[in-house]
Design brief:
By secondary structure, the protein is α/β, with parallel strands linked by helices. The protein is built from twelve helices and twelve strands.
Amino acid sequence: MPGESLGGRLDETSIRTIAIENAGRTAAMRAAVGAAPGTRFAVTVGALDAGAAALVAARHLANWGFPVQAFHAGMRDMLSPAARREARVLEACGVSAEPLLSGALAREKLAAVEAPRALTGFEVSEPTGRAEEVAAAARERFSGALTVECGLKVRPPAPRPEDFVFRPEVAPCSREEVRMLDSLAIRELGMPGLSLMENAGYYAAREAFALLGGADDECVVVFAGRGNNGGDGFVIARLLAWWDVADVRVVLLGEADQVMDDARANLDYLDAAAVPWEEAASEEAATRAVRDAAGAGLVVDAVLGTGLSGAVRGSAAAFIDALNCAGARAILAVDTPSGLDANTGEPLGAAVHASVTVTFAAAKAGFFSGRGREHTGRLVVADIGLPRSLYGTV
């Protein structure tokens, strides 16, 4: 049941939200492989988690610029809370899912759909016989449809060269503008912050996986802060472990009791995923942890995010100084190199010199001014699933 503890403070609702996002994004990426611009997609879903995941896939496809038509079995109020939420978010992407109230109506409506690619999301335990009729009609109309499945243990597969990966092409934004995008998505549209964090961590983990060059025996050390930037780092560590990278470790620069909300859920998920982590709350502990990571194949900097505006202090400052002197083979910065002012491009006392920076939703203005270029290294702008309609609001 939702709310049931699965270890630490991580509950089934959190795991379900993460699983639905992963299943939907994976399905969308696979469905879009080889699709020409303008390819039309049809998405037909039931009421439960597989339907919610298929609606997530529809949201991603619509955001990536593909025309989408979506249908759900029964009235909207028959959908699970997760599926209703995803239907509302899909509407913000310009796609309104149409109800199909019977098998006969489904056959009539779907017969008129011209879409060379289709996805379906139904479960054997759908709450009504109507869903079975609609699912049968969808299978008849779209015999080669990709079937979206979802369960609490779903894991996104390791990256493949053929995966469809969308890169947002938007003008650089200030940290305030990106913060507003996140706020609108969560507060106005009802998108779970865990979904956005999972997407951010996924695309950063893809870049980390590529930096390892297939050497799954390398050591990866993720340094994480107490806020959402650290939460992204926890996701990266979990995904790399799921992708069979042999030695993944997390160093939390602070105390676990200070980690809250979505970041806390993902810290707890590390335990469920058997990813080791430790605290390094003092300057001495942070310096020692960097020294211990000197031989790692990759260091992930997920300590300080774009919200930083004051001088770096304490264990974070010690971490930055030690890392810049350590000669790490590769450093991947999450959203922004720790210590860099995302608006001005100037270090706030000290800033990490990254090999690669994976930033989310849009490049930050500071990456192209001040000393931003010398700190960010190669820049990758990653999609986190924000509806395109939001970009016109900032």
